[in-house]
């Protein structure tokens, strides 16, 4: 198997978030993928609105176009229905471009047993609609109600989780899980925000507190970065 050069893209201007992405991605890559982690050199440090997302698309495209030939694949490490993925695919041709949002939705669909559905636990309130609209775009109107039970924001922001996960973040997760568990058809929870990486075990603990260990054990917590790498390996035809 030949070595593949991967560019992992953080479309905001926060090196701390890039380091968080690196900590959650490296262990899943294996020996045949050599990653480079890239942070957008300007623009918002955190993408909190559609305007921020659209601005980052333009900035990232401008900066990355000269680098496209240096890489075999691209991973967008931003949990949003981000237009940059589609824009980059136009530029790179047949090279794989994977976004962690799309990858986590795909991972959830692979494990669902209808009538069970998946939900997204996200960060800011604006992302509830942004991600719900994104799932609708991916699945289509006819399927979305059968598979998707919505997105719930926690209000978690970078100061809550970096440099370490705070008690404030844990409390916000507990409250988010309470809202998620109002629906008894949930089989998978997608962690919907890069700054939520590392909280997967705590989300499961919160599910156990709400539902009991036996019921909670049936719920799968989708690690967005692991899902992104798995989808990328599939497209590169690398064994997972």
From TrEMBL:
A molecular-function term among this protein's GO annotations: amino-acid racemase activity
Source taxon at top rank: Eukaryota
Pfam families: Asp_Glu_race (PF01177)
InterPro entries linked to this entry: Asp/Glu/hydantoin_racemase (IPR015942), Hydantoin_racemase-like (IPR052186), Iso_Racemase_Enz_sf (IPR053714)
Family as reported in the entry's similarity comment: Belongs to the HyuE racemase family.
Protein name: Asp/Glu/hydantoin racemase
Species of provenance: Exophiala spinifera
Lineage, opening ranks: Eukaryota, Fungi, Dikarya, Ascomycota, Pezizomycotina
């Amino acid at each position: 198997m030949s070595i593949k050069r991967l560019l992992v893209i953080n479309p905001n201007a926060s090196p701390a978030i890039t380091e968080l992405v690196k900590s959650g991605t490296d262990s899943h890559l294996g020996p045949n993928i050599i990653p480079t982690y890239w942070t957008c050199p300007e623009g918002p440090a955190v993408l909190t609105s559609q305007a921020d997302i659209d601005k980052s698309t333009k900035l990232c495209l401008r900066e990355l176009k000269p680098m496209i030939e240096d890489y075999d694949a691209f991973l967008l490490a931003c949990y949003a229905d981000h237009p940059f993925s589609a824009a980059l695919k136009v530029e790179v041709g047949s090279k794989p471009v994977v976004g962690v949002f799309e990858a986590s939705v795909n991972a959830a669909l692979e494990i669902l047993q209808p009538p069970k559905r998946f939900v997204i636990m996200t960060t800011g309130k604006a992302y509830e609609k942004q991600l719900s609209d994104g799932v609708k775009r991916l699945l289509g109107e006819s399927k979305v109600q059968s598979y998707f039970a919505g997105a719930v924001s926690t209000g978690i922001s970078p100061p809550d989780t970096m440099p370490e996960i705070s008690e404030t973040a844990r409390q916000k997760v507990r409250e988010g899980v309470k809202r998620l568990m109002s629906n008894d058809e949930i089989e998978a929870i997608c962690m919907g925000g890069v700054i939520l990486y590392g909280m997967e075990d705590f989300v499961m603990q919160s599910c156990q507190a709400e539902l009991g260990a036996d019921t909670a054990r049936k719920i799968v917590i989708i690690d967005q970065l692991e899902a992104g790498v798995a989808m990328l390996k599939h497209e590169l035809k690398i064994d997972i």
